[in-house]
Amino acid sequence: MTTSGKETHLHLDMYVPGLLLWLSNKLAGSASQVYRRQFGINVMEWRILSYLAVYQTGTGAQMSQLMGSDKAGLSRGAAVLQDKKLIKSQQGEGRNLEFMLTAKGKAMHDRIIRLALARQDALLTGLSKSQVDDLITYLNVLLRNLPAVEAIDATKY
Question: Quick check: is 127 in a domain?
Answer without folding.
Answer: yes
